[in-house]
Amino acid sequence: MYRFLLSRQWVIITLAALLLIPTMIRLGTWQMDRHDERAARNRLVADALAADPVPVERLAAPGKAVTRAERYRTVTATGRFDTDDEVVVRRRTNADDEVGFHVLTPFVLDDGRVLLVNRGWIPADGPSQTAFPEVPAPPRGEITIRGRLMPDETTEASGIKDLQGLPDRQIMLIDSEREAQRLGAEVLGGYVAQTAPEPKDGIPQRLGNPGEENAALNYAYAVQWWLFAAAVPVGWFVLVRREARERRARAAAGDTGSEHADGAKSDGEESDAEAARSAAV
Questions:
Q1: What pLDDT is recorded for position 279?
Q2: 125 with 157, same domain?
Q3: Within this chain, do residues 205 and 242 fall inside the same structural domain, yes or no?
Q4: Burial 139-153 (b: 16+ CB within 10 A, else e)
């Protein structure tokens, strides 16, 4: 009854099932890898945010890239803001998804080196965003600031194109090496997203804490794919049993029909014989 498995239809079904199982297992493994990566990043971010503040000079230096473990670390710096060389970063949104600018102000440290400080978000003056916006001034004189250490921005990491020919004092990406060339000074690698002290009237708006990536969703997807992989052979077995059962039922129905036909034929022959005997008498 299982010779039907050699038919073209069932060979295709079986091959498709055999291909689906490893494919689904691999997809589940990929989702689990994504879960592990996101969970690891979440732990790094949480550890960095919970760490005690340290002087920025301990982690950042000219030409030194900010590492994954250093990202979001709370740092402090003492110096003064240089608003003469201040620039704004285009096409940035706030918590309400309003498009505006980030304010990037050089912060001159006591030793003369420069730290790039992202002071926060301000709205654009108009839809064209070609004119330099009105930027609230930072505190004058020497001040100690606090913020989160961030790596230089790249198009690959941010998805923001580094456009050329921008209006004066406007940039697309925060790049410490490029700013060092513009300023003609030693600039510490990366930048700091300022969190304290708070600005007057709340402008610029301080940048919020980084959100946690949803690693649990990838875990759920991984389990889902593996359940699908386990369901494929079960479904194949159920289909095979049902096909065999239906074939047995059709075969049994065919045998019953043949017996009825043979019985009817025998009754007819007996009737003909009786009729012949009656005629002879």
A1: 47
A2: yes
A3: no
A4: eeeeeebebbbbbbb
154 in a structural domain: yes
Per-residue pLDDT of 233-252, as tens digits, reads 999 999 998 888 888 888 88
- Chain CA centroid to CA 24, Å: 19
CA–CA distance, 139 with 271 (Å, rounded to integer): 122
* Mean pLDDT, the chain, whole residue set: 88
For the cut 80, the answer to whether the pLDDT of residue 64 exceeds it is yes
Is the pLDDT score of 128 beyond 70? no
| Same domain as 234, residue 201 | no
Q: Among candidates 93, 49, 104, which has minimal Cα distance to 75?
A: 49
Residues 24-49 pLDDT 10s: 999 999 999 999 999 998 998 899 98
Residues 202 and 222 in one domain: no
User: How many domains are contained in the chain?
Assistant: 2
Residues 77, 205, single domain; the answer is yes
Cα distances (angstroms) measured from residue 57 to each of 109, 118, 161, 188, 240: 10, 17, 30, 8, 70
Full DSSP string of 85-121: G-EEEEEEE-TT--EEEEEEEEEEETTS-EEEEEEEE
Is there a single domain that holds both residue 129 and residue 257? no
Q: What is the pTM of this model?
A: 0.73
Residue-number span of the structural domain to which 233 is assigned: 3-36+216-280
77, 145 contact by CB (below 8 A): yes
